[in-house]
Amino acid sequence: MTSKKMISPSLLSADFGNLQRDIEMINNSDADWLHVDVMDGVFVPNISFGQPVVKHIKKHARKPLDVHLMIVDPARYIQSFRDAGADILTVHYEACNHLNRTIHAIKDAGMQAGVVLNPHTSVSLLEDIVQDCDLVLLMSVNPGFGGQKFIENTYSKVMTLKEMCLRKNPDCLIEIDGGVNLGNAGKLFQAGADVLVAGNSVFSSQDPTQTIAEMKRL
Ligand code: DX5
Ligand code: ZN
């Protein structure tokens, strides 16, 4: 099975004073999804934005909203993020006591469901949940901020996860988030990643539309 080679630009690196303009750029690019980072200042040190902002993002976006919840006890907010316009909802393994229930609640609400692992969390812990997931997101930085350095150990995690998905759920997508750029994207696709989140490397480039197109072709 080959990589789907999808790109999900992260709005965290967009100009929050010009969100509509930056969403239009993504609409007119080869991006597949639009990555939306929700942070609560408790699960991660930073606070970003919540459902009211997601609702306005949804008004302008023509790509599926890939909403990454970096919040404690995310099960409380499944329906409200659905109502705000999320198409894909990912929750952290480290933030859920009843992950099986939460994943199924996300699906029952009509969204694609994914589990996110922090860099220190072993892929082996997914053995009994991967069959229920539409995707698994591996953090390749410690979550909370854009523009951080990619953690090299991610490549071996991708390969381990790919092997597990082939065994247990070949349709499960593998997504990578943090420090992705034109220098490591090709190697990540080769290792088995299907979807790459890219914030800083897209929005700080001279030509973000071109950078997205180039990343997909690696
Ligand atoms: C980090 C967020 C990422 C972030 C990625 O906690 O989950 O989605 O926006 O940004 P870059 O690509 O700049 O590392
Ligand atoms: Zn993210």
Q: Which stretches are poorly predicted, pLDDT < 50 over at least 5 residues?
A: none
Global mean pLDDT = 98
Oligomer status = single chain
User: What order do the strands of the largest sheet run in, or round the barrel if closed?
Assistant: 1-8-7-6-5-4-3-2
Rounded to the nearest angstrom, the radius of gyration is 16 Å
Quote the beta fraction.
Answer: 15-25%
Helix content: 25-40%
The count of helical stretches stands at 8
Shape: globular
Taken in chain order, the helices and strands follow as EHEHEHEHEEHEHEHH
User: Given the helix and strand composition, which structural class is it?
Assistant: alpha/beta
What ligands are attached or bound here? D-xylitol-5-phosphate, zinc ion
Amino- and carboxy-terminal Cα gap: 17 Å
Major beta sheet summary: 8 strands, parallel
Question: How many strands appear in the DSSP assignment?
Answer: 8
